[in-house]
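The record is given unchanged here:
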Amino acid sequence: MTHAPRPRLFDRRFARRLWKLVRVYWTSPDAKWGGLLLGLAVALELGTVYGFVVMSDAQRSIFDALQEKQPAAFFGAFGLFFGLMTFFLLVASFRIYVRQRLEIRWRRWLTEHFVERWVTDDGQWLLSLHGGEVDNPDQRIAEDVRSFVASALGLSLSLLSALTTLASFAGLLWALSGDWTLPLGGMDVAIPGFLMWVAIAYAVLATWITHRVGRPLVPIHFDRLRAEADFRFTLVHFRENAETVALSHGDAHERRTARDRFGRVVDNWGQLIRAQLRLTLLTTGIGQANGVVPLLVAAPGFFLGKLTLGSVEQTRIAYGQVSAALTWFVSAYQEIAQWRASVERLCVLSEAIDATRAQLARADGLAISRSADGALRLAGVRVELPDGRLLIEDANAEVPAGEEVRVLGPSGTGQTTLVRTIAGLWPFARGRIETPPPERMMFVPQRPYLPIGTLRAVVSFPAAEGSIPDERIRHVLEQLGLRSLAGRLDASEPWEQKLSAGEQQRLALARALLQRPGWLLLDDATSALDERMEERAYQLLREELPDTTTISIAHRASGAHHPMRRWTLEPEAGVCRLLAE
């Protein structure tokens, strides 16, 4: 497993990447609605802080009434406190609802952004060109987007709440401890806002220690996401190929692979829980020790009669709020570390997509134009591998519309790559190709793609389900020997696992017969059929699609008696030349 560079917690590079990720949504058309929800969420956060301030004053009144033994004042203050608490609970609950509404809007837009960029014709090159940097793009889009949005909102709103709390309670804490004196060297020394200075000093020390202890969490979370995704992919890969593994008696190998990948999860988990244990011990200790500070400092003043019990209680509350605000970084450190890893993984994915597109653009030395007469022409076409090595040199050929071409040559000479170049799926080529419009072309690979859905959707792909009459679908399936499937158009199954390789290829050929393309490119699309069925398939294509130009790769002589053009790739000194007959 290739390891990407482990990110630091914060630096300029992170700030640039974060802004690039954040602006995807906040510069989108949906941002106006997101802004309204964000404004409401901010207002509710501020309302919550204000409720804390008012409730602290009500609590002071309650304790003062207790100390003075005034029942009427006590119950009056308690009634006010109960009303404020009810209002606070409503505001606190509604702010969670508003945050979640904003979260799903942001997540939906960001997910669609990455899906639009990943699920494209260029997406196939991402892993082949940048696979060492980008592991599990599906997991990054599904999980890291969710984690990024949830933590971005949660952390930013909680930071806002902490800053507002600090502004609201700092003045109160300063006033409450404004004239406190400390006995130093036989003298009473007055320190204005003494508890405020204590809270600041405590927060600075706690933050520094927390960062020192918790810093390893960032790379650990980064590796955790990769290890979990790799293990999950192993299990999914086995599920999709369970029959092949069973027939190969490869279950022991698959179990070893799964155990090895889960072993990485376990190792990473051990690192994570040890790091979290150290951080939890530290933060819990900081919180517990900090909780008794105001009582220890205020107790002498209460015993000397300078402070009332209500003042002590209000001081405790104010100190707790100020201290919690100042130590926000301490309490949020674990979430920040996990969020930082998600930001890194999403930005790496985005940058890899950009790099892939840039690399493909640089490799685009192939001029593709539309032919006026519907013919296919290759002029001086050079086909290369992604690393720049030459595969096919100076290919020149012409195919009039409506004819059939068979591409021949030893395995590994580039038949598939040549056909993909013609289809516009291979960018590493130079020269000039004249083709018919791409919407009239259909490419059928050796292993066809079977989407998730009903059999009707599978046969209709890439057309929409229901766009082709069922009677027509059943007729074509019967023509290709798939009568058993003709009555199961409404069935939804994992078809890649249910159907044999030959049945899958016949389904792909059924698509061609149903959609009637002007040009049909077959990349060894009949390799899993027996010779009789292969001959039948080619005969159907000729009969049903008489005006379709067919370019096919096949390694058997089926249909060789039928007149057709032949392109032969002959290797010479490591490079192939195209001989067109």
Observations:
- Residues 251-303 form the longest helix (53 residues).
- Residues 9 and 540 are 63 Å apart (CA to CA).
- The domain at 12-361 is CATH 1.20.1560.10 (ABC transporter transmembrane region fold).
